[in-house]
# Entry
Amino acid sequence: MLDFAPLGAVAQLGERRVRNAKVGSSILLRSTKTPERTETGPRGPFPFPAFPAKEPALTDARPPEHEAALQAAADLIGQADALVVAAGAGMGIDSGLPDFRGREGFWRAYPALRASGLDFHEIASPQAFRDTPGLAWGFYGHRLALYRRTRPHAGFALLRHWGSLMQQGCVVFTSNVDGQFQQAGFDADRVHECHGSIHHLQCLQPCCDDIWEAGAFVPEVDEQHCRLLNAPPTCPRCGGLARPNILMFGDDGWLERRSAAQWAQLQRQLSQARRPLVIELGAGTAIPSVRHFSHAAVHQLGGRLVRINPDEPAVPTTRDVGLAMGASQALAGIARVLGPQWAAAGT
Ligand SMILES: [Zn+2]
# Structure
């Protein structure tokens, strides 16, 4: 059993007491950023108490496109009995999803918010839903529609297939709220969304603990002005405004029940693994929630790590593999080395 708390219990803005979903107690936290999709800002408290707060010294990554590194990654897949996929924002970029890193990058994706002078941290907040609900739902409504119509890149199918060939199957830990793993056919019962999901809603207040699927809400958005044109979703209990069930910036109202239940389930599933392999994709160090999970899984379960990250591929030990590549390219390269025995139909 992995001995650490779900991220949702700690990734909060400011200093305040939050519920610890695992032990049901209160813990005092000091954190300065709330992650959602882009992960910038100082490092918050380490969410997994059993693992050292300081990351281990990292070795140099293997040469980016080196065949030996791809072969080493393929060898690790071959010896594993469970696949643990740990994904950050970089995983979605190859599917064509916008990269929110940096203020300019964000405004390129949402030029109407540049005109309003609102950056990602400001619009991705409960306060934005209170102050400018049409704009906040314009932003999230656009993203909801975008994620619904986005086809996950081929790397998702490769991961799913490799996991299906392992005795203990595959689990997913993701900081992404886009639902792309479920969209790619992953078993929803084996996905943990540590920052929640845009495909689920909750009351903005919140007046109750209800979390419900967003399927009935079809946003119509004026993209030029980032404004929701139709009626926003409302809470079935109080009739007030609803919001995505996502951990936002400055968020004291996120309902973490769903995410916490996913976490408990993932822990049970991982307890069966004897030789887990973590494949980490597109997860940065700025707010390293996914990286901490990867390291804890390796450290506590005796697994190995393949880290795929074009900018920060260094890995903790020489037995692990770092690939300085994008997710889609690296997974295709590994698939090539693995050969036809591991090939998935249609990939
Ligand atoms: Zn309500």
Remarks:
- Residues 203, 205, 207-208, 235, 237-238, 240 surround zinc ion (CB under 6 Å).
- Residues 103-150+213-246 form one domain.
